[in-house]
Amino acid sequence: MNNIKFFLGEEIPLELHKVRVIQKLNLVPIERRLRALEESGYNTFGLSTKDVYLDMLTDSGTNAMSDNQIAAMFQADDAYAGSQSFERLKTAVEDVLGKKFLLPVHQGRAAENVICRAFVKPGDVIPMNYHFTTFLAHVLENKATIAELVYDHAFNFDTYHPFKGNIDIEKLEDTIKKHGVEKIPFIRMEASTNLIGGQPFSISNMMDVRRIADKYGIMVVLDASLLGENAYLVQQREEQWKENTLGEIIKMMTGLADIVYFSARKLSSSRGGGICTNRKELYQGMEALIPLFEGFLTYGGISVREIEAMAVGLYETLDETMISQSPTFIKYFVEELAKHKVPVVTPPGVLGCHVNAMPFCDHIPQSQYPAGALAAAYFLISGVRGMERGTVSSVRDENGVEVLANCELLRLAVPRRVFTLSQIKYAVDRMAWLYENRKLIGGLQFTYEPPVLRFFMGKLAPVSDWSEKLMYKFRQDFGDSL
Ligand SMILES: Cc1ncc(COP(=O)(O)O)c(C=O)c1O
Fold this sequence. Notes:
- The chain has 482 residues and is an alpha/beta fold.
- The protein contains 20 helices and 14 strands.
- The strands form 5 sheets. It has a 5-stranded mixed sheet, with helices on both faces.
- Helix 7 links the parallel strand 5 and strand 6.
- The longest helix is centred in the C-terminal third of the chain and has 16 residues, at 421-436.
- It starts with 29 loop residues before the first helix and ends with a helix.
- Pyridoxal-5'-phosphate binds next to helix 4 and helix 10.
């Protein structure tokens, strides 16, 4: 995003792309939105896009593709084995991520499955900055656990710290000493920690992690799904890296990891994923799992067309105007909400704008899922679909007891180059109204709770008739307006 000075009026983020393919959107009346919410089980994953106006559920697989990516899809070399498209992807991975051995997988969680099956044993502990839902599910599948080691300030959402995704190095060393090296197959760093507000780690922190890893002979595994944006925030916020290109920063980070894996749905394209390394023995330790779970080694369950788009998308992560677009819009979104006193995660991170549901809904006990209730209420009054990132997204302990999450966030994802500024302004306006009327929001309870990844398929219901009351107030204030 170029830094443009405006002669008139407010400073706004400027798009350095134009829209050439469009998709029509609907904004259905609030009465229909209430029915849609009931049909979904008050879970935004259960909504149909025909009822959604702005789909801010996620950036996974929803970033806008470039003309060059789409053009590349036409030159795909369809072959079960030895496809030239895969060769082009391998070259892109080596050029951008600096790793020469590549295992393709159909999406990020497939990489997590392969890595966990290859390296995690029952009883192991994986230290990390913070977990991601699907990674945790694979660790638990393999009868191991995790240790989350971000600094305590990562959960002080209204205080400024440029790198809330950093690992607390003292806690890391204590964890290694407590469990013993033999129980720790690797340390996992997640770029731009998804679940705690898209907050980045710094390169100096990753260097410290590498130092500790080398001291104890432990591998470092980097989840690079949101690496481009993490690199952008390093360039913005870490003094020593201000003059470096995104490419140099990315290579620095990947160079500190033994294994890098990614969801290409976030990093570079709309499908796919990969695991890469420069260590042949690690590659060989995972190789056999690819044909077993994914597909042959040169397509990994991804369509060859998508492999071409991934390769072009990887080179595009080096383009600052592309990578900065989403964080710049998120910054605008966060700062506008803050002007209306809406509690938001600061500093603005990547992936989306995160609303802090604990103070927003301080009248709802955490056991009644304030972030889930806020996601439902916000969809009801705006047609904007966000995602709960709190206790609904958490898991019960081995005795079935609810484990309250460290934070209750409503994430409003801002995929790259998808939404216009007027749409972001609409989202701000409706959130400001909801904040004024927040006491009308009530809690939720589960009516159907699957044992694994319950936030995807679970069904909930309001604990009272609060959604009808909220709709009534909306009609009073907005009249016939949608
Ligand atoms: C940090 C991170 N890792 C892994 C994944 C899983 O990737 P996928 O959705 O492609 O399976 C995601 C998805 O959102 C993610 O954000």
